[in-house]
């Protein structure tokens, strides 16, 4: 099995084959997801929340994300590894975007990058694509703009839907090979999927996107607290892991672990 590439993404769209994407932030989980043949792994800036414990994705830095990208690349020889450009590392313009994306490829070993925004970041997308760096766009609920959006809510309703479509077309025209659509009405995502030649990757964007993406701790039921309605929990890892560590704690306290079979 050779590594999944932008050509495979285009081929899947032309054949009407849907594919899945998951976030990954470390070596061990990357090996699990790669062995499960998840074709694209995203080292999301959601690491801000699930790895570093920040309230939003705004504070996380390139220096905090690059080591995670390196670890995921080491664990995933078959998946395309996409690095998220964090807030403040590309908004200044194409030169800054190119310098940042270059670090994620050279130091991180990523094969592609993702950035948030529409027409305004199209020049940055074009600069990266011109330099040979595959780019995924990200529209709708863009968490790096949370302070401007005023909260985590559905985007692209009514007239805002037309703006989103225009932004998606601008990102496509700039050379992106896919675009994430986050928390937008399903009918809008379906329209975008039809009108775009590039792949749409939905998260809370209905069933008609070319691909889906989820934060792995959400879909595996490891995240605590509130999870958004678009998340399906495929496992209950928080209970499984919590039970395991409580049993371990109790067995150490009670002298049941370790026994002779764990000793030399
Ligand atoms: O950072 C992230 O995890 C993301 C995905 C949810 C699309 O951007
Ligand atoms: Na992100």
UniProtKB/TrEMBL annotation:
<comment type="similarity">
    <text>Belongs to the PanB family.</text>
</comment>
<feature type="binding site">
    <location>
        <position position="114"/>
    </location>
    <ligand>
        <name>3-methyl-2-oxobutanoate</name>
    </ligand>
</feature>
<keyword id="KW-0963">Cytoplasm</keyword>
<keyword id="KW-0460">Magnesium</keyword>
<keyword id="KW-0808">Transferase</keyword>
<comment type="subunit">
    <text>Homodecamer; pentamer of dimers.</text>
</comment>
<feature type="active site" description="Proton acceptor">
    <location>
        <position position="182"/>
    </location>
</feature>
<comment type="pathway">
    <text>Cofactor biosynthesis; (R)-pantothenate biosynthesis; (R)-pantoate from 3-methyl-2-oxobutanoate: step 1/2.</text>
</comment>
<dbReference type="InterPro" id="IPR015813">
    <property type="entry name" value="Pyrv/PenolPyrv_kinase-like_dom"/>
</dbReference>
<dbReference type="InterPro" id="IPR003700">
    <property type="entry name" value="Pantoate_hydroxy_MeTrfase"/>
</dbReference>
<dbReference type="GO" id="GO:0000287">
    <property type="term" value="F:magnesium ion binding"/>
</dbReference>
<dbReference type="GO" id="GO:0008168">
    <property type="term" value="F:methyltransferase activity"/>
</dbReference>
<dbReference type="GO" id="GO:0015940">
    <property type="term" value="P:pantothenate biosynthetic process"/>
</dbReference>
<dbReference type="Pfam" id="PF02548">
    <property type="entry name" value="Pantoate_transf"/>
</dbReference>
<comment type="function">
    <text>Catalyzes the reversible reaction in which hydroxymethyl group from 5,10-methylenetetrahydrofolate is transferred onto alpha-ketoisovalerate to form ketopantoate.</text>
</comment>
<dbReference type="GO" id="GO:0003864">
    <property type="term" value="F:3-methyl-2-oxobutanoate hydroxymethyltransferase activity"/>
</dbReference>
<dbReference type="GO" id="GO:0005737">
    <property type="term" value="C:cytoplasm"/>
</dbReference>
<feature type="binding site">
    <location>
        <position position="84"/>
    </location>
    <ligand>
        <name>3-methyl-2-oxobutanoate</name>
    </ligand>
</feature>
<feature type="binding site">
    <location>
        <position position="45"/>
    </location>
    <ligand>
        <name>Mg(2+)</name>
    </ligand>
</feature>
<keyword id="KW-0566">Pantothenate biosynthesis</keyword>
<keyword id="KW-0479">Metal-binding</keyword>
<feature type="binding site">
    <location>
        <begin position="45"/>
        <end position="46"/>
    </location>
    <ligand>
        <name>3-methyl-2-oxobutanoate</name>
    </ligand>
</feature>
<feature type="binding site">
    <location>
        <position position="116"/>
    </location>
    <ligand>
        <name>Mg(2+)</name>
    </ligand>
</feature>
<dbReference type="InterPro" id="IPR040442">
    <property type="entry name" value="Pyrv_kinase-like_dom_sf"/>
</dbReference>
<dbReference type="GO" id="GO:0032259">
    <property type="term" value="P:methylation"/>
</dbReference>
<keyword id="KW-0489">Methyltransferase</keyword>
<protein>
    <recommendedName>
        <fullName>3-methyl-2-oxobutanoate hydroxymethyltransferase</fullName>
        <ecNumber>2.1.2.11</ecNumber>
    </recommendedName>
</protein>
<feature type="binding site">
    <location>
        <position position="84"/>
    </location>
    <ligand>
        <name>Mg(2+)</name>
    </ligand>
</feature>
């Amino acid at each position: 099995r050779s590594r999944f590439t932008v050509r495979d993404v285009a081929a899947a769209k032309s054949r009407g084959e849907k594919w899945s994407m998951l976030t990954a932030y470390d070596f061990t989980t990357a090996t699990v997801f790669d062995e499960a043949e998840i074709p694209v792994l995203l080292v999301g800036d959601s690491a801000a929340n699930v790895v570093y414990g920040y309230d939003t994705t705004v504070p996380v830095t390139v220096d905090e994300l690059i080591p995670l990208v390196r670890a995921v690349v080491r664990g995933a020889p078959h998946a395309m590894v996409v690095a998220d450009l964090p807030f403040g590392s590309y908004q200044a313009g194409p030169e800054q975007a190119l310098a940042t994306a270059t670090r994620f490829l050279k130091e991180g070993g990523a094969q592609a990058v993702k950035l948030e925004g529409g027409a305004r970041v199209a020049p940055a997308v074009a600069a990266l694509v011109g330099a040979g760096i595959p780019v995924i766009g990200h529209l709708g609920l863009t968490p790096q703009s949370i302070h401007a959006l005023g909260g985590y809510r559905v985007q692209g309703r009514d007239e805002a839907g037309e703006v989103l479509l225009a932004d998606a077309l601008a990102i496509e025209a700039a050379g992106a090979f896919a675009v994430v659509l986050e928390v937008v009405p399903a009918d809008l995502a379906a329209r975008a999927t039809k009108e775009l030649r590039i792949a749409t990757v939905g998260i809370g964007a209905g069933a008609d996107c070319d691909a889906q993406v989820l934060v792995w701790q959400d879909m595996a039921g490891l995240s605590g607290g509130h999870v958004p309605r678009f998340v399906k929990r495929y496992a209950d890892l928080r209970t499984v892991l919590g039970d395991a560590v409580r049993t371990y704690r109790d067995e150490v306290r009670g002298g049941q672990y370790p026994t002779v079979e764990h000793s030399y």
